[in-house]
Amino acid sequence: MPTGLPQPAFVLIRPQMGENIGAAARGMWNFGLDRMRITSPRDGWPNSRAVAMASGAGRLLDEAQLYETTAEAVADCTYVYATTARPRGLTKPVLSPEAAMKEAAEKIAAGGKVAVMFGPERAGMENDDIALANAIINVPVNPEFSSLNLGQCVLLSAYEWRRASTEIVHERMEMGGEWAEQHEVERLAEHYEERLEEAGFFFPEQKAAHMKQNLRNLWSRMPFTRADVQMMHGIMRQMVRWKDRG
Predict the structure, then answer these.
(1) CATH number of the domain where residue 133 is located
(2) C-alpha angle with apex 55: 165 to 46, nearest 5 degrees?
(3) Which of 16, 34, 122, 207 has the greatest CB tally within 10 Å of its CB?
(4) CB 2 within 8 A of CB 65
(5) Domain of 86, in residue numbers
(6) Is the pLDDT assigned to residue 241 strictly greater than 90?
(7) CA–CA separation, 154 and 242 (whole Å)
(8) Do residues 65 and 160 both lie within one domain?
């Protein structure tokens, strides 16, 4: 069964290759979308190549709704977007994927039922298809090479939906251990200062205080984990042992 999460339906208009349908399913499920609708697939339905390409997203294909025409596929929707590189002279709002999915999220949150249409691979949607849409989604691609694969276009739109509908953490630290506490870093600083003092590093004497302050400042700028601190202690101990052996 589809998840209960409010979301748009992604409508594949007359898709030609089963592999592209499978790639579209995979892209949708990557970003939490599972409402797929398909109109008149060229190679019939179900399609074994679509299933193979969908990998872990095969459930979307099992639950995909099949329609004869574009009009039937979007008949229950209150707002429809058409993804196309060529508006073809029709007067409609043209939005970027980011703006369209943000708007779609707002409409769905207000109780609307939204669909996003994707045309067949070779020539895209016909004017009769686009005429059913309220707005157009136009991807800002390289004008010298504007053709997008069906799976790519679905993936891009699904990603923008995820960004618009989910709290995204834009930066995080992947921790491999616990952060070192201040007293642990302080002990590390003392260890290095003591050994460097013995080695005659703080020279000449009139610059020693400033050199030590710079070294302490360096330690304070470095975000150490406890494992980092232990390793740095080990490095210094080994260097001292090596010197003593010599």
Answers:
(1) 3.40.1280.10
(2) 100
(3) 34
(4) no
(5) 9-165
(6) no
(7) 61
(8) yes
The tally of domains found in the chain comes to 2
Nearest-angstrom CA–CA distance, 99 and 113: 17
Q: pLDDT tens across 151-171, in order?
A: 999 999 999 999 999 988 888
Tell me the CB-side half-sphere exposure of residue 164, using CA atoms within 13 A: 24
My answer on whether 135 and 93 are in the same domain is yes
pLDDT value, residue 136:
95
d(CA 135, CA 87): 10
Distance from C-alpha of 123 to C-alpha of 22, rounded to nearest angstrom: 19
Tokens representing 148 are 């997008």
Final residue belonging to a domain, choices 119, 140, 165? 165
SS3 119: coil
Extract the tokens encoding 10. 């992604």
**Same domain? 40 vs 84:** yes
> What are the CA-CA distances from residue 23 to residues 12, 86, 116, 228, 230 (Å)?
12, 23, 16, 43, 47
